Backbone:
């Protein structure tokens, strides 16, 4: 897969559409976060807070605050995933030479939103499990090592050098195993993230496909291509620095450019799979 050709195709798909692409990403981003943010703000406003050196902290959550926090969580689960669906559909249209409008930002609410939400939630659960299991095992080793640390400090405080050396010798393997499993968690989690990264694209292209089948197809498309997509994403790091230098203004152009690149990547990768 030629990364330069992918980027060339992405730029071609945005030619004459940059204004709409920027507007679409901006509106989708705002709408996808505004409901949870408003609910969270109401929860903070109706609860007791205290100003500390670390910032504003909630000391006592009110009943109203708890209700709005729950609403915010539900909004993140049931509303937020619908805007990436619309964004994905818009940039796939652009890559295929079709037109789109900012009004299409609500397409996720019109086209079987329940299935889109199920795909997003199941994908999140799979990736979370991939991170959690090895992290949990690493945490067990870290916990046993922490107990050994206490013994070391006790031995040092009582000047028991023989006991100190013995515990340190047995501490190393536990710390090594903890570090190993945390590393494994990162590796497996990243692999799983890229493995199912195109699930929303498959969902857009195949509205009648079942939830599990969508994830299976996305995994099949990414077989042997995870590193290609990872390298493509890494290639934008320089632009991220430029965006930060411009106080975030550059993201107005970078966000649609990345979306166009991933859409071009998907259209190239899905051939002979779907």
Residues:
């Amino acid at each position: 897969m030629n990364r330069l050709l992918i980027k060339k195709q992405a730029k071609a798909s945005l030619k004459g559409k940059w204004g709409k692409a920027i507007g679409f990403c901006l509106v989708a981003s705002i709408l996808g976060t505004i409901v949870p943010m408003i609910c969270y703000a109401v929860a903070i406003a109706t609860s007791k807070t205290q100003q500390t050196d670390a910032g504003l902290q909630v000391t006592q959550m009110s009943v109203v605050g708890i209700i709005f926090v729950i609403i915010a969580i539900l909004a993140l689960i049931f509303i937020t995933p619908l805007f990436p669906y619309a964004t994905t559909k818009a940039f796939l249209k652009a890559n295929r030479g079709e037109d789109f409008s900012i009004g299409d930002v609500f397409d996720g609410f019109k086209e079987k939103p329940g299935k889109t939400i199920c795909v997003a939630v199941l994908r999140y659960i799979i990736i979370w499990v991939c991170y959690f299991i090895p992290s949990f095992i690493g945490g067990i080793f870290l916990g046993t090592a922490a107990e050994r640390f206490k013994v070391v400090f006790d031995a040092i405080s009582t000047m028991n050098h023989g006991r100190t050396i013995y515990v340190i010798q047995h501490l190393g393997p536990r710390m090594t195993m903890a570090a190993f499993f945390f590393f494994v968690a990162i590796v497996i989690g990243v692999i799983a993230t890229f493995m199912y990264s195109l699930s929303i694209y498959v969902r857009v292209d195949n509205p009648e496909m079942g939830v599990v089948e969508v994830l299976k197809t996305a995994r099949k498309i990414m077989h042997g291509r995870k590193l290609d997509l990872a390298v493509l994403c890494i290639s934008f790091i320089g632009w991220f620095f430029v965006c930060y230098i411009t106080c975030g203004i550059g993201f107005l152009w970078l966000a649609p450019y990345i979306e166009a690149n991933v859409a071009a990547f998907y259209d190239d990768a899905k051939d002979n799979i779907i």
Remarks:
- The chain has a mean pLDDT of 86.
